[in-house]
């Protein structure tokens, strides 16, 4: 008699990891432009809907549940309620939501795909990626608490004080005093996701302000002493 197939914990973890990678790739591709947002909308809608259903069925992490309760939007903005003022009202809601999120998490920035997931979770009523992108484009001019930066096609919602220019100056000042630095140290200092730090450091490296060295210590960044004149950061 043949042995039945084995479905161990390793296979389960690998399957879950593949699902996460597939979703990450989907979000990265979808938010590159408005055209691709429309192209990927059906898939994103399925992911968000599945996320909502699973979060209701599974026992959620206490810290995450506490965060969702704190950020819960009891009366979400809708087109039916606000009519022609819908986009501006939605922008105000997102502005306030991000402000509360940063206060609760003690963070200063969040990737737009991450915001899409947690914001829709708090609303309970889904908005499309296109709506989110359009509204977040208004934050720099009309928002009270947060803004939107586009760094190498990565869309980042950030506190007003956390700008690419301020980040750049902080890194250069740190390198003058400590010679080298890594992304984990920076992430701890700012209280933001490692992925965001890496995106910003890649931008500074492209601007020839810093350079990297890869060794057993990992990736360490240094001031670029071969650059005689600092380039302006890309807004």
From TrEMBL:
Cross-referenced Pfam families: EAP30 (PF04157)
GO molecular-function term, one example from the UniProt record: phosphatidylinositol-3-phosphate binding
Entry keywords, A to Z: Cytoplasm, Endosome, Protein transport, Transport
UniProt KW Cytoplasm keyword: yes
Subcellular location: Cytoplasm; Endosome
GO biological process: protein transport to vacuole involved in ubiquitin-dependent protein catabolic process via the multivesicular body sorting pathway
Gene Ontology, cellular component aspect: ESCRT II complex; late endosome membrane
Subunit note: Component of the endosomal sorting complex required for transport II (ESCRT-II).
Entry function: Component of the ESCRT-II complex (endosomal sorting complex required for transport II), which is required for multivesicular body (MVB) formation and sorting of endosomal cargo proteins into MVBs.
Protein name in UniProt: Vacuolar protein-sorting-associated protein 36
Source species: Entamoeba nuttalli (strain P19)
């Amino acid at each position: 008699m043949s042995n039945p197939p084995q479905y161990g914990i390793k296979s389960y973890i690998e399957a879950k990891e593949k699902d996460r990678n597939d979703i990450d790739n989907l979000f990265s591709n979808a938010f590159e432009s408005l055209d691709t947002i429309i192209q990927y909308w059906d898939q994103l809608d399925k992911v968000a809907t599945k996320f909502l259903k699973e979060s209701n069925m599974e026992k959620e992490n206490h810290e995450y549940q506490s965060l969702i309760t704190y950020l819960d939007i009891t009366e979400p903005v809708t087109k039916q309620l606000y009519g022609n003022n819908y986009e501006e009202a939605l922008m105000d809601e997102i502005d306030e939501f991000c402000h509360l999120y940063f206060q609760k998490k003690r963070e200063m920035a969040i990737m737009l795909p991450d915001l899409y997931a947690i914001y829709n979770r708090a609303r309970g009523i889904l908005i499309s990626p296109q709506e989110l992108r359009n509204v977040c484009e208004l934050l720099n001019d009309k928002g009270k608490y947060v803004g939107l930066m586009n760094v190498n096609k990565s869309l980042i919602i950030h506190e007003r004080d956390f700008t690419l220019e301020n980040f750049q100056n902080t890194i250069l000042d740190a390198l003058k005093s400590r010679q080298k630095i890594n992304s984990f140290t920076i992430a701890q200092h700012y209280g933001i996701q490692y992925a965001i730090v890496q995106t910003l450091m890649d931008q500074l490296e492209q601007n020839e302000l810093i350079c990297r060295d890869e060794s057993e210590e990992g990736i360490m960044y240094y001031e670029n002493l071969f650059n005689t004149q600092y380039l302006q950061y890309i807004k």
